[in-house]
Amino acid sequence: MTQPWNAPFATEPVRATVAVPGSKSITNRALVLAALSERGGTLTGALRSRDSKLMIDALRALGVPVDEGDQVVVGPHQGLRGPSEVDCGLAGTVMRFVPPAAAIADGDVHFDGDPRARERPMSTVLDALRALGAAVDGDALPFTLHGKGALPGGTVTIDASASSQFVSGLLLAGARYDSGLTVHHDGKPVPSLPHIEMTVAMLRAAGVTVDDSAHNTWRVEPGPIESRDWVIEPDLSNATPFLAAAAVTGGSLTIPGWPEHTTQPGDVFREIAAGMGCTVQHDEHALTLTGPDELTGIDFDLHDVGELTPTVAALAVLANGPSVLRGIAHLRGHETDRLAALATEINKLGGDATETDDGLVIRPKPLGAGLWLAYEDHRMATAGAVIGLKVAGVRVDDIGTTSKTLPDFPAMWDRMLGAAG
Ligand SMILES: O=C(O)C1=C[C@@H](OP(=O)(O)O)[C@@H](O)[C@H](O)C1
Ligand SMILES: C=C(OP(=O)(O)O)C(=O)O
């Protein structure tokens, strides 16, 4: 058990430029697409973190050569194969993206992951694969896919209201199914739609024909996936704790390389921060956020951008008025039940947060020192760091859990604060 991390308290406004590593979501999609293309592919600016390492190791376990140099190079291979073991860790992208790909492997593939991963929703993907012709034992991690080297594919109806990753995972592999794939969603609205747009955009960039013109229906034509050099954008969701540092201290923070156009949901943070009183400037080179004297509360539907919730909740705790965060019931199936975790930890520090059916209500109240639990959730850990900038004596029990997507977080945070002087 590691010692709790003393969250640095900001004695002056944060003023810094912070370069964040590559996007988790784009990196892990590019890895899957490269593995499913005949000649592999390369990734420039790939994220190197627990989640991307789990994806690389999963692909290697399926017989795909992956070289991790300056670039990540996915080599050509003779087809995915078992028998093999895949460790999903706590990575939603590994547990939801790899099984649809492994469904065309030759041989058995056994999947498992962290204890919490066994509780994350999974049966939708496995039922869909069964409906498309796969043989699968199990409804959650651990489970075994009995690959036959090909999958008929066709049309499947799923309820993807618990996670957009159910749709993305199926679409990423769908072109390699004999008849391609049509996915219909039937249920409450699918969350995180920008992440599905990211999937569709990357499939098209790899030469796959995708029809997403009908609401809640996606059609992927069968055919090859082209080999490409993927240039990975900075992870905009991982940029948000750093931007939040400027927001809560009345400072100014620049993220270089913020894309002009992107499917990353982190881009919506510009609108949220502006809605809370920040000034946000964006040009073709960078994004700069300047914090106000006092943050205002916000009423925001985060359904499309749920992964921003922990950062936004941290801002809300330090705002001068109430905030309502809506549309995020599906966060109960994330790395931890994020609604329960945020409400519990905020209230433990003396704050006022209430869980609703689909979100959180956070009211201003002075906070005090205390231990902030991360629940093995990288974004809970970074939210604790943001609050600690303004509340003296906050400790985060497991800052190391940030390695899921941002292994260098504590050093980056220190460098950011050092730059403020
Ligand atoms: O496809 C992706 O890369 C992701 C989709 C989203 O999942 P949910 O739709 O389950 O929220 C997001 O929260 C997750 O961090 C990454
Ligand atoms: C929900 C998240 O991760 P995962 O890809 O494991 O679902 C997240 O990073 O906020």
What does the secondary structure layout of this molecule look like, with pairings?
Blueprint: E1 5-6, E2 15-17, H1 24-36, E3 41-44, H2 50-61, E4 66-68, E5 72-74, E6 84-87, H3 92-102, E7 106-112, H4 123-131, E8 135-137, E9 143-148, E10 154-158, H5 165-174, E11 181-185, H6 193-205, E12 210-211, E13 217-220, E14 229-231, H7 236-249, E15 252-256, H8 269-275, E16 279-282, E17 286-290, E18 299-301, H9 309-317, E19 323-326, H10 338-348, E20 352-356, E21 359-363, E22 370-372, H11 378-388, E23 394-396, H12 409-419
Parallel strand pairs: 2-15, 3-14, 6-7, 10-11, 18-19, 22-23
Antiparallel strand pairs: 1-23, 3-5, 4-5, 7-9, 8-9, 11-13, 12-13, 15-17, 16-17, 19-21, 20-21
Subunit structure: Monomer.
Protein name: 3-phosphoshikimate 1-carboxyvinyltransferase
GO cellular component, one term: cytoplasm
Structural overview:
The chain is of the alpha/beta class and 421 residues long. The protein folds into 2 domains: 5-21 and 234-419, UDP-n-acetylglucosamine1-carboxyvinyl-transferase, Chain (Alpha-beta prism), CATH 3.65.10; 24-231, Enolpyruvate transferase domain (UDP-n-acetylglucosamine1-carboxyvinyl-transferase, Chain), CATH 3.65.10. 31% of the residues lie in helices and 22% in strands. The protein is built from 12 helices and 23 strands. The strands form 6 sheets. It has a 4-stranded mixed sheet with strand order 2-15-17-16. The protein has a 4-stranded mixed sheet with strand order 4-5-3-14, covered by helices on one side. Strands 6-7-9-8 form a 4-stranded mixed sheet, covered by helices on one side. Helix 5 (165-174) packs parallel to helix 6 and helix 7 (236-249) packs parallel to helix 11 (378-388). The radius of gyration is 21 Å and the shape is globular. Bound molecules: shikimate-3-phosphate (S3P) and phosphoenolpyruvate. Residues 91-93, 307, 334-335, 379 line the site of phosphoenolpyruvate.
